[in-house]
Every structure is written in C-alpha cells, then in structure tokens.
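Field reference: sequence -> structure
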Amino acid sequence: MLNLLKTTRNVSSRFNIISPQARLLQSSEEIGGSGPHLLGWDLSPEDLIHIPEHWLIYEEPAASMHYLLGLLYIGIYLIGTIGNGLVIWIFSTASSLRTASNMFVVNLAFCDFIMMAKIPIFIYNSFSKGYALGNFWCQLFALIGSLSGIGAGMTNAFIAYDRYTTITKPFDGKITKVKALVLIMVVWIYTIPWGVLPLLQVWGRFVPEGFLTACSFDYLRDTFDNQVFVAAIFTCSYVIPMSMIVFYYSQIVCKVFSHEKALREQAKKMNVESLRSNQKENSQSAEVRIAKAAITICSLFVASWTPYAVIALIGAFGDKNLLTPGVTMIPACACKLVACIDPLVYAISHPRYRIELQKRLPWLAIKEAETGNGSDAQSMKSTSTESGNATPE
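Structure field:
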C-alpha cells in the first residue's frame, strides 16, 4: 500500500494532478503531520467528490489569509446590507421616489441585498478554514451568487435603457410603471435559468473554488458541454449587458454633447453668454457631469464582472495553471465590493433620497437642503437638465 501511495504521488507531482483516491490516502497519512497540507486534506470522501481536482494540488493557505478574508467580508456584509436595505426601504415607501425609473433602482438594490445574504456562509467557512458547511450550503451560495450577479448586470442594462429613452426622447420616451414592471420581470425570467440549470446539473454545475470557502459554476471541467455552458453564460451574463450599457450610455453622451454644442452656437448667434438662466450656478458643464456618471457606471460593471469573465474563459479554454486559489478569490471580492458601492452611485448621490433619509434618520446629520425641484417628470423635460439625471430618480 505504501509503495502504491508513493507511486501515485510521483505521477501526481510530475503531471500536476491528483486523484480523489490518492487524496484520501494522503489525507489519512498526513493528518497527524506537522508539514503543510494540501487543500481539502481533511475532507471526507463525500465532500471530495464535489471538488474539482484542480484545487487539490495546491497547499492550503495560511490561517491568517482565511481570517483576513473573513474580516473583510464581515465589513462588506455590514456595509452592503445596511446600504442596500436603506435604498429598498426609502425608495419603496417614500411617495416622491416611487417612480418608474426608481423601480429599477429598487431591483438593483434587491439584487445586491440578496448577494449580501450569502456572505455569512463564506464567513463561517473562512473562520473554519475550508469547506466546512458542505455541499448543500455550497450550492445555495452559488445559486444566490448567480441570481444576484446576473440580475444586477441586466438591471444595470435596463437602467441604461431607461436613461437613454428619457434623455433622447424627453416627451414621449419616459417609461411607465407598467413597462418598468414588465422589464423587471424580463430581467428575472432571463436570470433564473442560469441559476437553476447548474443547480440541477442539467447544464453545468456548481462547485467549490479557490480556498474552498466560496462556490461558483464549474469552469474547469474539460468537456464539450461544459465549455459550451461557459461560453453561453459568458455571453449572456457579460457580453450582452455590457454591450447594452456601453451602447446606451455612449448614445446619451453623444446626445448631451450635441445638445450642449447647439445651445452654445445659438447663444453665440444671439450674442449672449448662455441660454441657461442658471449657467453660473452650475460650475460643471452638463457634458462633463453626464460623462463622469456614464464612466462611473460602466467602470463599476467592468470591475464587477471582468475578473470572473476572464477567469472563467481561462479555466474553460486556456491554461488552468494560471488559476491559483488566491487568484480566483479576487473576482468574489470585486463583486461584493461593487454591491456595496452601488447604493452610493445610484441612490445616495440623489438629493431627493438624501432628503428622505434626513427626515427618517435625522441622527445621520445629512443636512440636505430642500431644493424645491418638482417631480421626476419635470426634472427630465429637456436634455439641458437630463444630464443631471445620470443617476436615476
């Protein structure tokens, strides 16, 4: 038996692979050892069968790495849960904020909120230094991540569409509440299959990744069906929403720039400084504000999804040796951080939201002055004011 074990180790070391059977033999021998262990060394056969063999060739990280990630995720969980919870509460209950455009903001906050709901699983695994909660919680973790991540991406795309129609067609392009509700239903009809299919292992599957404290869809299995699945989910969860966001925001920027140019030319013909009565009150031009908002939104989406997209493509079609456990923990952190930032970009920058927050939680000392602005419809009458609506109201 010992000779067989040594032979298995030599072959595994030479080809960078290790079989579950060899893992079991190695685990039973090394449990009492003082040297470094490989990932999954202390797992049962029932747990090992769910873990891609790719991860089992790496040494387990130092305990301090697990604890640091656990502490980081505690902070993300608290900030994200409170921030997105406030957005859902204020935007759902304040009559001045219950508009069609804000329905997308609430849906985005809901996606980010349920993403926070899975973090306690990661925190428990991190402080237990591995795959502690087992396959059921792994599947739940990955399911929530899939639904919340793809749902948030598509909601961002429809927010871009809503702004595009409102700004380019200010009089007849405003989305109604019924249309907004239908589009939100489309988001979830589009999203749910990408969670259910791998959960039931009809197409793809959910497996542990990285330090075995998080789970995602399997992008490492070398089968044709799995590679097609990775290509399909990459296209539907990254390429399509990214294309929509870039297209709509680029159109908005072009529209605002052309409108501002037309205003300046008309003012020049009339020999006046500006056609705006409040030109001097706005130190920043409309095109600069809209460009900044569009760049911020696109950058957030890129920061959130690009790491996962790159890693998935490398795992399915590239050199898997590039995917170390530490590297694959980066996308998870990126997505959670963006879920914390979303409330700042989409809601806290909104003056009417800050006013409502000040009324209900005066101890926050926000001190937002009443602007006297009318309804959302009034604030979107012309493209000279729509640029201030880069954050949906």
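Note: Confidence is low (pLDDT under 50) at residues 1-32, 372-393.
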